[in-house]
Write a structure and sequence with these properties.
Layout (H helix, E strand, L loop, with lengths): L13 E5 L28 H13 L4 E5 L9 H9 L9 E3 L4 H10 L5 E4 L5 H8 L4 H14 L4 E6 L9 H11 L2 E5 L5 H7 L6 H11 L4 E3 L10 E5 L5 E5 L12 E4 L4 E3 L7 E3 H5 L5 H12 L8 H7 L5 H4 L2
Parallel strand pairs: 1-2, 1-10, 3-4, 4-5, 5-6, 6-9
Antiparallel strand pairs: 7-8, 8-9, 10-11, 11-12
Helix pairs in contact: 1-2, 3-5
Length: 331
Amino acid sequence: MPKLIDKFGREINYLRLSVTEHCNYRCFYCRDDEHTPNCKREDILSYEDIEKIVQLFAQLGITKVRLTGGEPLLRRGISKIAKLINRIDGINDVPLSTNAHLLEKFAGKLYQNGINRVNISIDSLIPKRFEEITRGGDLTQVIKGIDAAIQAGMSPIKINVVAMRGVNDDEIEPMIDFAINKGIDIRFIETMPIGLSGIKALAQHISEKDIFAKINKHLNNQLTPITSNKTAGPAHNFKIKGTNSTVGIISAVSNHFCQTCNRVRLTAKGDLILCLGQEDSISLKDAVRSDLTEDEIKRMILNAINKKPEKHEFSSVIDNISNRQMVEIGG
């Protein structure tokens, strides 16, 4: 059986696996005001479904599986899921993306079950502003989660900041200092037009160029580009001289990083999504619950990968007002 190489020659070795659509935060750029997850227990992938699907992907060359949500720590048995994925032959990297609200409770157990590194969303260090952005989040609890991850031994720990003009762009410098003081990494992310909420958030868009200018000025040009980093993903990363931290920018709108895209996404309901900027998907949940053989399901996956687009087309998504919420697809 051939590996996952799309028609543009990109090798797909990274699966982002959403384990729940639910989230305890309601970040305004991530979900619409009225959005409520609409899925029953039988609608989402079971432990058995997850294990079987990841096994098939591993046989096709996937080596990295990131657990996402919604908020993955809301999924019952999240530590069990981490453990069973880590035991699958061929999978050698199982990181987690989280808002860290529950991470203080779970960090030690997750680390024991193979989650050795984590990305944490935090868009402000001002408690009231953080509460407003997340529509109810608790900054104190998030910082406790970051500290618990550090204490557990997770590394690298990255904090992700969605940079928004007029919302938190005055905190770019304090956020960098926070990361340096904690000895962790930081990445700034451009707003992306996923769902109606994301499209509205484009009004606060800050370009990669403008973000970098603020970073570079604050750090007095003490930046060294990082050209090779297996955990960097689509970010442009820089080592901050004299520290243990790096700073990066993910610019999905200003600059396509699609030519190096090595990932696909699996929703909590089992839909395989090939690109954030496209609507195409296939149901792997239905496939693994059917009478199809493993080879037939792998052939389905290979055929889907062959339809992965060359690049995202956010403009067409905006025109069509995508029904997908970022919270539903582990973006």
